[in-house]
Write a structure and sequence with these properties.
Layout (H helix, E strand, L loop, with lengths): L1 H10 L12 E3 L5 E3 L7 E7 L8 H11 L4 E7 L11 H12 L18 H8 L15 E4 L5 E5 L8 H4 L3
Parallel strand pairs: 3-4
Antiparallel strand pairs: 1-2, 3-5, 5-6
GO biological process, one term: response to oxidative stress
GO molecular function, one term: peroxidase activity
Pfam families: GSHPx
Length: 171
């Protein structure tokens, strides 16, 4: 009986994610999607906000998505964690991004990127080892570059723009 209990407990233990491909999310339209659909491509994951001094980076994110579409998929994750700079609902965020910056790259539904309610993906990203740094996100528009195997390979603070050579050369 003890053996059966041990086997059952092992079956139901969930292991910590080892790549971003294990995360299931929702699009800005509320539809489920998995990052696994991007296996074999690099990803640039960015926490975004519509009312931030870095908001004009949406234009460069779109340009990066267009110019490097064979090498990387840009995914924006709207978050209201810093100065209440993303107060709107998903429909408002989507409309703002499309109207003001022509955004066509994928956007997730609004998430939390720090604190007690941190989205599991961002908990993973802020703790995953990489050659740059780990720890809490400091502000909007931090960027996480993921390799073709789903591993975090670089992390950039907000001041590093999407078309900065530190990013483009890593693609």
């Amino acid at each position: 009986m003890k053996t059966l209990a041990l086997i059952l407990s092992l079956l139901f233990v969930t292991s910590a994610p080892s790549t971003v491909y294990q995360f299931k999310l929702k699009t800005i339209d509320g539809k489920p999607f998995s990052l696994a659909k991007y296996k074999g491509k690099k990803l640039l994951i960015v926490n975004t906000a519509s009312k931030c001094g870095f908001t004009p980076q949406y234009a460069e994110l779109q340009k990066l998505a267009d110019e490097y579409k064979d090498k990387v998929v840009v995914i924006g994750f709207p978050a209201n964690n810093f100065g209440s700079q993303e107060p709107g609902a998903n429909t408002e965020i989507k409309t703002f991004c499309e109207k003001n910056y022509g955004v066509t790259f994928p956007l997730s539904s609004k998430v939390s990127v720090k604190g007690d309610d941190i989205d599991p993906l961002f908990k993973y990203l802020t703790e995953a080892s990489n050659p740059d740094f780990t720890g809490e996100i400091k502000w909007n528009f931090e960027k996480f570059l993921i390799d073709e195997n789903g591993n975090l390979i670089h992390r950039y603070r907000s001041q590093v723009t999407p078309l900065d050579p530190r990013i483009t050369s890593a693609l």
